[in-house]
């Protein structure tokens, strides 16, 4: 197969596919019905033309018959007056008119037969057109219902063109959202690990964070020791209520302070 033949086949196939998508059966049925109506109108016009011709022949035949009857009277009158020559001339003319009348009669019969045939064809065609119209409306209604049902099913299943576009848009939005979330999480991890520097200066390095964590843990331990001292001794050291840094100093002292005995008076003391 030559390349030109293949190209021709491809073009024909694509054109056929495009025409099949663009074709609406309802429009095709309406067009066919319109053409049938035009054909029926032509047949009816033909019947009317034949009937008009038949009527014209009938009028001509009637006129010739009237002339023939008049010539017959004139011939009788001339013969009664002894004018045999005039009577012969009148009868001769009557004979010529009779030939025309016979031709018109034959033509009238042919036209009448043609009119009957066209009338019968018109009636049959009209019946077919009416039947086609009923079938056309039924097919159109069925096609419309099937089309609506198909669109509803496609909408529910999500395979219609409109719903596919919406689904693709939602999918793209979800993909972009996941991508942004992943990027934000990755940047947070890099900032926390120190791989990236925070331009705002709010991000602390790992050593600073470790020192702050140890300081916080020591403060908690000191406060816990002070609370234990209060529970066991009954009163908290004075340093705890004054200086905020007192818990750290208090943690260096023993949990309970020794109670000293009152001094006894010596012999030389004044009582």
TrEMBL record:
Coiled-coil region list: 54-121
InterPro entries, alphabetized: PspA_VIPP1 (IPR007157)
Bias (Low complexity): 244-258
Residues in the signal sequence: none
Region of interest (Disordered), ranges: 227-271
Keywords: Coiled coil
Family: Belongs to the PspA/Vipp/IM30 family.
Stated name of the protein: PspA/IM30 family protein
Species the sequence originates in: Kribbella antibiotica
Lineage: Bacteria, Bacillati, Actinomycetota, Actinomycetes, Propionibacteriales
């Amino acid at each position: 197969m030559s390349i030109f033949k293949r190209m021709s086949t491809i073009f024909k196939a694509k054109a056929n596919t495009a025409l099949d998508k663009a074709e609406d059966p309802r429009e095709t049925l309406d067009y066919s019905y319109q053409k049938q109506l035009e054909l029926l109108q032509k047949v009816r016009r033909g019947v009317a033309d034949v009937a008009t011709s038949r009527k014209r022949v009938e009028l001509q035949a009637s006129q010739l018959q009237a002339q023939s009857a008049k010539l017959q009277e004139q011939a009788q009158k001339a013969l009664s007056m002894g004018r045999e020559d005039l009577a012969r001339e009148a009868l001769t003319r009557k004979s010529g008119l009779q030939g025309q009348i016979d031709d018109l009669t034959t033509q009238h019969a042919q036209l009448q037969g043609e009119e009957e045939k066209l009338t019968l064809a018109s009636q049959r065609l009209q019946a077919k057109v009416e039947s086609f119209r009923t079938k056309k409306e039924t097919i159109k209604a069925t096609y419309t219902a099937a089309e609506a049902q198909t669109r509803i099913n496609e909408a529910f299943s999500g395979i219609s063109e409109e719903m596919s576009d919406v689904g693709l848009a939602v999918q793209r939005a979800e993909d972009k959202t996941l991508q942004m979330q992943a990027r934000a999480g990755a940047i947070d991890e890099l900032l926390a690990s120190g791989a990236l520097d925070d331009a705002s200066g709010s991000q602390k390095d790992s050593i600073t964070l470790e020192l702050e964590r140890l300081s916080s843990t020591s403060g908690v331990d000191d406060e816990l020791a002070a609370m234990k001292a209060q529970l066991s001794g009954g009163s908290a050291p004075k340093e705890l209520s004054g200086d905020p840094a007192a818990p750290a100093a208090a943690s260096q002292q023993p949990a309970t302070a020794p109670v000293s005995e009152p001094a006894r008076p010596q012999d030389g003391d004044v009582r």
